[in-house]
Predict the structure.
Amino acid sequence: MTTTTFETLGLSEALLRAVSDMGFTYATPIQAAAIPVLLTGKDIIGQAQTGTGKTAAFGIPLLERMKPQTTGVQAIILCPTRELCLQVADEMKKLAAHRPDVKVLAIYGGDSYDRQIKALKSGANVVVGTPGRVIDHIERKTLKLEQIHTVVLDEADEMLNMGFRDDMESILAETPETRQTVLFSATMPKEILALTKRFQREAELIKVVRGELTNSNTEQFYLDIKPGAKLEVLCRLMDVHQLGLALVFCNQKRTVDEVAEKLRERGLPAEALHGDLPQAARNVVMNRFRSGSLNLLIATDVAARGIDVDDVDAVINFDIPYDPEVYVHRIGRTGRAGRSGKAFSLVTGAERRRLRDISHYTKVEVQRMTVPSFQEVVRVRRQQFSQRVADLIEAGGLEPYAGLLTKLQENGYTVEQIVAALVKMNFGEFKNEFIHENLDAGAERKSATRREFAHYKAEPKNAFKSKNGYAERSMSRAERYDKKSGKPYASGRQSGMTRLVINIGKQEKISPSNIVGAIAGESGIPGSVLGQIDIFDRHTSVDVPASLVQEVLRGMSRAKIKGKKVKVSVQEA
């Protein structure tokens, strides 16, 4: 494999010193391909997965184009979340370490406006921001874009999924037409292509895709378990596999809170991370996890963006994601920097089909693992306890406690009783409903499950496939048809979907992205699972998978769209 050193890319001494300080010698494939093109001032569309080094790919050329004599903001980088915004800003500051004329500022929701305004006035010239807060500063006239020479859209597909399309277009429209527009996205849906056509000039496509979508350093397993037993199985995995740093993903904010609370009740130091937490609290949790003082983090996908930790032992999918690409992003958090990692998926009910879709999409067979038994947990704990006792004896210094055993024996207790009591004190009480129950979904499912999660080449006949290689989640009206009869649905609604009605429409100047962003943000489901959206003068209808209707109704019960409190109901047949 051909390698490219940074010295061969024609970079300035300041940038070469910075990448050397960061420990980089060779450019990653996306860096080697993108940096020379961006240095010429051309627009690019970069397609690369998480963890490929894309921040430096756009950050290095951006800094090379910074003009010391120019005042005001010269470059802006848009990110979908606060966490990613902070991560990118931190990386940019490291790259600009030897450019004293460059000041990098992160602006995002949940942080003080006064602090951000003061920093903008003091001469910040590279802004890394979330779309909503950037729009706020533009409207307040505290962020001026006349001197902008580069705009970067980082993780553009995720910003679209979160409903930021209008904001992205508004920001781009405010910048000079002579700007360089750089777009990075893991996927290329038609909405992304529409953005590039409108706002880029003769953009060059640079696509760097790994041979496999998932890291070969990460072992992938799934556990087919009985309903209601996920929390118990999660605890058993932590014990049996002696996981140090673990990241647990849930699909909804409510589930994140419930899992974190129940784990703490069991004595495990777990913390929750999702969008409803105040920014200060999120920063504390993130810093604790990065430093290793917190080893069990329960998070939603959006909140976890920006976690850049190399030594995560395992990723656990408490809920199976609806989108296979989300699965790829999740397990990419482990097995990094040459280390090995594990990914466990807890599967019940309809989630089995989702995991099958993931297996087809990633072209990797996820191995079935038997649920650890209660006896295995006890065995591992006993081994750990015995080892700790042996280590203490070897270390010495036990003289102050030497007489305790004799005293207890004088009171009539045997050595076996005393040791058993000490072990019980260490283990705590084993009280839960699953002690004597086999939590595996059952031997009768094993043969069927092996077929269900067979290698991706064994695809079902006549499988309805999308361009991305997995089951299409949302089709246009013309494409929606009954597969058996071949006839269109009379209502234009895809099978398995329920139509919801929202009391807001064209009069409030809303767009489909506003609807998708509100539903995805409030209910925790990805926008990609939603179906047809029809906007009328005073209301909007949207098709939602029938199995997710209650989640959407709960999530939207206190939601606002464009500042207006909305009501969501099921459309009567």
Summary: The chain has four domains: 4-208, 218-373+443-452, 374-427, 477-570. The chain has 21 helices and 22 strands. Residues 43 and 244 are 43 Å apart (CA to CA). The domain at 218-373+443-452 is CATH 3.40.50.300 (Rossmann fold).
